């Protein structure tokens, strides 16, 4: 489900089925790496949309968490923890952080709440629409087992 | 020097008011144009079947195809892409929607190792028979929806409105 008024009624009626939150992590920079960061953000947003489409009955796609590239990891982790608290208090036992930011790979073990879904950024903005869709579909095929694995871990409900 | 570059208050007001006025005029005129043109658009929409596959690619085993079309949302045109399961039932082509009738996740064919001959929904383990009927005891309470379909010159054309099959 999406963070949209049209989806919220359904959400409220079926809350107990929606135990997963999806949050994209997007670095922002207006400096040298700006173009790269924009492309990365676009890619991750497309994947997030596609994941929402495939798993909408169990997954709530939240607005992305963006941060300036130079923000300290400690502060970011603290922020993530605040999120986890809010989400867990509302029955979201699986939290999926979706990103291409290489920085997070180093902190995989410290990321709270569930799954760090780190994807290498593919420059699909140069592809024609059909090839782009195919690339995303292929990516989704790889994501599916990871999500299933996360769901198989019973985290209480 | 500097003086020339400054926009006087009067100029500023003139520019902005013309701009705003233009918008307002457009707001009045656009719906009129729309009303005038709409019947034409509607007539076109009647035969909105979309070509998705060749009949001779199909088998008894359901395969996934993309149904792509544009949807007019009133304020913008949305590019829609839906996954459709196509297969043969005898000589007949069947097109099932991939949207789980429980809460809308995407179902796949044969991905549950215990039930290789069924559609499977990863979200809450919903299952459907090959003909789309929901398996009792799993969360979905109605069969997968079916697309209206026509075969023309060996190609499968689908309507964009999958229908409940009860
Ligand atoms: S959405 Fe398919 S079983 Fe719940």
What are the key terms here?
A: 157 residues; Rossmann fold; 5-stranded parallel β-sheet; 5 strands; globular; B: 166 residues; alpha+beta; Rieske Iron-sulfur Protein; 3-stranded antiparallel β-sheet; 9 strands; elongated; binds FE2/S2 (inorganic) cluster; DUF2487 family protein (chain A); DUF2487 (chain A); 2 iron, 2 sulfur cluster binding (chain B); monooxygenase activity (chain B); Rieske_2Fe-2S_sf (chain B)
The CATH homologous superfamily of the largest domain in chain B is named Rieske [2Fe-2S] iron-sulphur domain
Given helix and strand content, the structural type of chain B is alpha+beta
What's the count of strands of chain B? 9
Low-confidence stretches of chain B: 39-46
Describe the protein's architecture and organization.
The complex is a heterodimer of chains A (157) and B (166). Helix content of chain A is 46%, strand content 17%. By secondary structure, chain A is α/β, with parallel strands linked by helices. Chain A has one domain (5-150): Rossmann fold (3-Layer(aba) Sandwich). The two termini of chain A are 19 Å apart. By secondary structure, chain B is an alpha+beta fold. In chain B, 25% of the residues lie in helices and 30% in strands. Chain B has a 3-stranded antiparallel β-sheet with strand order 1-9-8, with no helix packed on it. In chain B, strands 2-3-4 form a 3-stranded antiparallel β-sheet, with no helix packed on it. A 3-stranded antiparallel β-sheet of chain B has the order 5-6-7, with no helix packed on it. Chain B is elongated. In chain B, 23% of the residues are buried. The chains are: A alpha/beta (157), B alpha+beta (166). The A-B interface holds A 10, 14, 17-18, 53-59, 133, 144, 147-148, 151 and B 66, 81, 100, 102-106, 121-124, 139. The complex binds FE2/S2 (inorganic) cluster (FES). The site of FE2/S2 (inorganic) cluster (FES) has 11 residues of chain B, from loops. Chain A: It holds the Pfam family DUF2487. Chain A: This is DUF2487 family protein. Chain B: Belongs to the Rieske iron-sulfur protein family. Chain B: GO terms for molecular function: 2 iron, 2 sulfur cluster binding; metal ion binding; monooxygenase activity; oxidoreductase activity, acting on paired donors, with incorporation or reduction of molecular oxygen.
């Amino acid at each position: 489900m999406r963070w949209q008024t049209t989806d919220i009624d359904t959400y409220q009626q079926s809350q107990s089925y929606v135990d997963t939150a999806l949050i994209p992590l997007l670095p922002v920079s207006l400096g040298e790496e700006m173009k790269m960061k924009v492309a990365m953000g676009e890619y991750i947003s497309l994947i997030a949309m596609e994941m929402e489409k495939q798993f909408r009955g169990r997954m709530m796609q939240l607005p992305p968490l963006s941060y300036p590239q130079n923000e300290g990891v400690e502060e970011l982790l603290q922020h993530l923890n605040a999120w986890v608290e809010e989400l867990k208090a509302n029955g979201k036992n699986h939290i999926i952080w979706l990103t291409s930011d290489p920085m997070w790979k180093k902190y995989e073990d410290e990321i709270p709440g569930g799954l760090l879904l780190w994807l290498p950024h593919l420059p699909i903005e140069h592809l024609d629409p059909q090839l782009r869709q195919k690339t995303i579909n292929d990516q989704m095929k790889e994501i599916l087992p990871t999500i299933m694995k996360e769901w198989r871990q019973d985290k209480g409900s | 020097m500097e003086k020339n570059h400054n926009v006087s208050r009067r100029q500023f007001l003139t520019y902005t008011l013309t701009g705003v006025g233009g918008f307002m005029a457009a707001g009045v005129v656009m719906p009129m144009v729309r009303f005038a043109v709409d019947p034409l658009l509607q007539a076109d929409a009647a035969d909105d079947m979309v070509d998705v596959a060749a009949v001779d690619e199909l088998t008894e085993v359901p395969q996934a195809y993309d149904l792509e079309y544009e949807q007019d949302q009133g304020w913008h045109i949305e590019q829609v892409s839906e996954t459709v399961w196509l297969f043969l039932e005898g000589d007949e082509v069947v097109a099932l929607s991939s949207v789980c009738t429980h809460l809308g996740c995407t179902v796949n064919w044969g991905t549950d190792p215990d039930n290789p001959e069924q559609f499977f929904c990863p979200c809450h383990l919903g299952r459907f028979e090959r003909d789309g009927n929901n398996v009792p005891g799993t969360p979905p309470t109605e069969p997968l929806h079916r697309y209206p379909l026509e075969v023309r010159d060996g190609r499968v054309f689908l309507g964009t409105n999958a229908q409940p099959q009860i």
